[in-house]
């Protein structure tokens, strides 16, 4: 498969060949859903913590005598049914992370790239380099290309001017090729790859 290559100014810069094994798969939603669930679970902090009855600072003495009051039998005021008591089955600090085979993660990335290509949302730019770190100038270039919501994937090293200039533009993310992931690809409208990123992806899945 071939795709036209453009410059940041919107001019033609030749063509690039894309591998069918990376961009030509029939996207499977079940694989994409598994990878995104794995990513978000790994990202979740899991620092939520409620106080159980063992953590509440209240007396453990019996509230009142067992018999003769006409009221229900109770022991500690730390019990969950009382105001100020411990939470029953509350959240505890834990890791939400779960395992996902490496091959499934790699397949998920290829399916995400194929989904973008199938939707005609992949753009290849010859070089993601800005002459100066000016947000206004870069935003104008994006407007010319019709990019209002996009993920930019550069080579192994990102141009510092481009990265700084794109930092303050809403709905624009910039990542090096080693940081490419399924969640960020699917959460943005367009996927913009540099030629270096395409070459790195071809090498990665060779």
UniProtKB/TrEMBL annotation:
GO biological process terms held by the UniProt record: translation
The domain of life is Bacteria
Gene3D superfamilies, from UniProt? 3.40.1370.10
Stretches the record annotates as Disordered: 65-97
Q: What GO MF terms are annotated?
A: rRNA binding; structural constituent of ribosome
Q: Which Pfam families match?
A: Ribosomal_L4 (PF00573)
Residue ranges, compositional bias (Basic residues): 65-77
What does the UniProt keyword field contain? Answer: Ribonucleoprotein, Ribosomal protein, RNA-binding, rRNA-binding
- Which GO terms of the cellular component aspect does the record hold? ribonucleoprotein complex; ribosome
Function in brief: One of the primary rRNA binding proteins, this protein initially binds near the 5'-end of the 23S rRNA. It is important during the early stages of 50S assembly. It makes multiple contacts with different domains of the 23S rRNA in the assembled 50S subunit and ribosome.
- Entry's family note: Belongs to the universal ribosomal protein uL4 family.
List, alphabetically, the NCBIfam families matched.
Answer: rplD_bact
Q: How does it assemble?
A: Part of the 50S ribosomal subunit.
Q: Mind telling me what this protein is named?
A: Large ribosomal subunit protein uL4
> What's the encoding gene here?
rplD
């Amino acid at each position: 498969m071939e795709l036209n290559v453009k410059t940041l100014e919107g001019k033609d810069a030749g063509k690039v060949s894309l591998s069918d094994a990376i961009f030509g798969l029939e996207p499977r939603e079940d694989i994409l859903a598994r990878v995104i669930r794995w990513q978000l679970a790994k990202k979740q902090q899991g620092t939520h913590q409620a106080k159980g009855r063992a953590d509440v600072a209240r007396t453990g003495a019996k509230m009142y005598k067992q018999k003769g009051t006409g009221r229900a039998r109770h022991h500690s005021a730390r019990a969950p049914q009382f105001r100020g008591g411990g939470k029953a089955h509350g959240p505890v600090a834990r890791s939400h992370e779960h395992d996902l085979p490496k091959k499934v993660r790699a397949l998920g990335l290829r399916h995400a790239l194929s989904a973008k290509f199938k939707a005609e949302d992949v753009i290849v730019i010859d070089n993601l380099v800005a002459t100066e770190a000016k947000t206004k100038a870069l935003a104008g270039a994006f407007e010319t290309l019709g990019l209002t919501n996009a993920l930019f994937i550069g080579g192994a090293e990102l141009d510092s001017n481009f990265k700084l200039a794109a930092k303050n533009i809403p709905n624009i993310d910039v990542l090096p090729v080693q940081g490419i992931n399924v969640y960020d690809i699917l959460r943005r409208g367009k996927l913009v790859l540099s030629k270096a990123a395409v070459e790195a992806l071809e090498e990665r899945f060779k």
